[in-house]
Amino acid sequence: MAAYRALRERHTLLEICRQPELAAEVTVQPVDAIDVDAAILFSDLLLPLEPMGIPFDFVKGEGPVIDPPIRSVEQIDRLRRFEPRESLVHVLDTIRLLRIRLADRVPLIGFAGAPFTLASYAIEGGPSSNYARTKALMYGEPDAWHRLADTFATVIADYLRAQIEAGVQAVQVFDSWVGALSPADYREFALPHTQKIFETLRPLGVPTLHFGTGTATLLPAMRDAGGDVIGLDWRIPLDTGWDLVGADRAVQGNLDPTLLLGPIERMLRGAYDVLQRAHGRPGHIFNLGHGILPNTDLEHVRTLTQFVHQQTA
């Protein structure tokens, strides 16, 4: 969006995240411009790292860089569990500001990263293609891995609780990198820690969403880990994925975001296929299977949103 790019010319991503007025402005931009059905808090998955003692920054052309990365048991044992209502108060202030600005026009969704994805960032030092260092720690030092993942689970559960207290009306747990795991490894190394987050949040009565990519083989295990809504990416047909998740859960997805880069007619055929596979059943949140790509034409997004609203009216 042009308005966001203009803001980024004057501020870094982290500066926007740390200034409630700016973060609220960016959160509301797509609600105003695209007529989406919910607002997603503008923030970043990595914000909890710094107060834990894991410094990071965003390097142009490279993305997030953690320096130094977590590479030893001693580093894991030195990590801090912090009070999010103090260390991340700017996020909570953004939420409170947004509840006023949105005035219940649409619900506000908060989010945080899942333990596997956050631990992978911390260990790899940034994005990875094979997660070799992460898996080496998992396999070679399983006790240390579980201490690290449990620390993240504790921190993230409290952080999401604080977001709910501040006013978000649903929360999403992003496990963006968990598709790198086999089903057996997911159940051993990731599921118990993600499950801890959802179990902690359950008594609060707020809808929870569980999202990952490359997870076609993990969907039954992700269901067991928790979440009222399970995300489906574009690599599996929506009806097939829903069968794996179970009829008692809602699903979110699952249009390929690259379809928005092609002809409008093909994009709408893809959206129609997703809706047909949902069969009008309650519990389907139409969405992309992953994040929107930066070079997407805004008019394509508007057209898609209008089409879905017309088809489901």
Provide the CATH topology of the largest domain: TIM Barrel
Give the low-confidence spans: none
Report on the biggest sheet.
7 strands, parallel
| Secondary structure category | alpha/beta
Indicate the CATH class of the largest domain.
Answer: Alpha Beta
Overview of the molecule:
The protein has 2 domains: 2-231, Alpha-Beta Barrel (TIM Barrel), CATH 3.20.20.210; 255-313, no CATH class. Helix content is 52%, strand content 13%. It is built from 15 helices and 9 strands. The strands form 2 sheets. The protein has a 7-stranded parallel β-sheet. Strands 2-3 form a two-stranded antiparallel sheet. α12 links the parallel β6 and β7 (229-231). The protein is globular. The protein starts with a helix and ends with a helix. The model has no long low-confidence stretch (mean pLDDT 96).
